[in-house]
Amino acid sequence: MIAFRQLALQRGGTPLITPSDVRINDGNRVGIVGPNGAGKSSLFKLLLGELTPDQGGIDVTAGMRMAHMAQELDALDRPIVEVVMDGDAGLRRVEAELAEARAAENHQREAELHGQWDTLDGYTARARAEQLLTGLGFRSDQLTSPLSAFSGGWRMRVNLAKTLFTPSDLLLLDEPTNHLDLDALLWLEQWLIRYPGTLLLISHDRDFLDAVCNHILHFDHGALVLYKGGFSQFERTRAEKIAQREAELAKQQARKAEIEDFVRRFRAKASKARQAQSRLKMLERMEDIAATRVDSPFQFVMPCADKTSHPLLSIDHAALGYQTPLLSGVRLTIAPGQRIGLLGPNGAGKSTLIKSMTGDLPLLAGERVEGEHLAVGYFAQHQLEALDTKASGFMHIQRRSPKASEQEIRNFLGGFGFQGDAVFETIERFSGGEKARLALALIAWEKPNLLLLDEPTNHLDLDMREALTEALMAFEGAVLVVSHDRHLLNATVDTFWCVADGRVSAFDGDLDDYRQWLKSREQAANAPAASEGASATQDKKATRKAAAERREQMRPLKNRRDAAEKAMTKHQDALTEVETALGDDTLYADTARKDELNTLLRRQGELKQQLDDAEQAWLEAEEALEAFEQALDSAQ
Length: 636
Prior knowledge:
Layout (H helix, E strand, L loop, with lengths): L1 E10 L2 E11 L4 E5 L6 H8 L7 E6 L5 E3 L11 H6 L3 H15 L3 H13 L5 H11 L16 H14 L4 E5 L7 H13 L3 E5 L3 H7 L2 E6 L2 E6 L2 H15 L3 H21 L3 H16 L24 E9 L3 E10 L4 E5 L6 H9 L6 E6 L5 E4 L2 H4 L7 H8 L5 H9 L17 H14 L4 E5 L7 H13 L3 E5 L3 H7 L2 E6 L2 E5 L3 H16 L7 H49 L3 H4 L4 H42 L1
Parallel strand pairs: 3-7, 3-8, 5-6, 6-7, 12-16, 12-17, 14-15, 15-16
Antiparallel strand pairs: 1-2, 1-4, 8-9, 10-11, 10-13, 17-18
């Protein structure tokens, strides 16, 4: 049990935590949320004894073993699997004493130590360490490589594996997903769900918090408030509280209208029921929790270029990589308005693809053709380091647009959280989150029509992630994004591409399908090799035959779905024409056009009903198709 009793903390004279009473029971998995700089990491330092509270104190169950991620790993020359095993100090101590007992031929002591070794599960230690590293994205041939062979992000993964390997009753994790891709994040999510101890987790990933945590500890303007449930439940509960004390009806209604308009447009374009349903649920939830963002410091848009081209960018018969091809036979086209999420295992080439699309990485073979009016906005982590640390945010924009007024620049940067004199502060002391916000602001200032975003949410807090999500939803250009933030992907993309096995291909599914795809891929990799010769040929023939039969059985359902989708498009186009005509102000003022007005209104009602009927038919057909597929999978 952990109890904060009238806990208060100040840093530099600024209150971070105002007197708060919170009790966390053993076994709870608590997500800690709040804006950057609120004091979340300082709370961990209080628990670790690295800081002393200014008031009150913390009570922790006696004997509770804590594990947390250290800031640095010093053993640069040691194999990473050994670094991970260093996390169990007790195991290492027994290991050293065993070596001494063997050297001294003290067999009785050696037998005693073997008993301790068994109690510490030492015989499986190396296998457990390797499993952690593999789950976090390392290949089996990398496990004996020294830590110095890896970049900073990969060292953080080793550090995380070492922390998870450490025996603990209380696990403290500060932004563990920052340096993970989606595959490793999904693995970590399952590991933490199975963790038997108490977990305190600082994260800005709402889907991760929802999946892992059963309580949320919120930094609410300095006060620590504990909520029961995951992040979505926290948002709903907090929204209710805010709605009771804030008069935000007008703002809520405006937001509701935006959501309804987006739902209407999304329905007309949707081609997958599960994608549609998950998006609709997400939008409904956004409507419910809009009040929680009343006091968000971030409010911005992503302007789009005035001119565009069709297509914006195409790559044909290309080989991508540095010296040797990592991706081959790449053929893709980006059209205005496309919204693509890029999936694929770690190291498969997602970042390589994006760099090739920007032109920063020349093609090894093939052709890259830019549209006449292509304007690319590119975000990647290395661009944060490329910022001029001696310049301010104001100066960065002024260099791009010398004729822009000071007030115009101030207003623009204010939407990204740079208020008042903060616009003139040099960025040398900026946090990772502040640099990421500035990099996004610089992209938005240039008005691109194609956004290429490689992990844009790293270092961003929840409010900024939500603001970015809303800005991308409203962006009128094309978007291609790599992200481990599933909320952002679900909200902002319509289709997925998968980068795997040296190829780039369309992925027919949503993120739940991708999770299953990863599981199937892992099972296939671990399965014994198929027998050779005639039996393998027979298996292929049987597989092809079964696939053909399956396609034939599914054909009527697919025809129903496709017909409903065509009807939706037809009715939506007709409805748009009618509503455009109804937007003519003279139609209402001219009494001679009364019959025309009534006809248009009647037609509008008919088309809305027809569109609703077509949408319902489409959803029913897609659900039937999905149920049929699941039944076939179960039968197999």
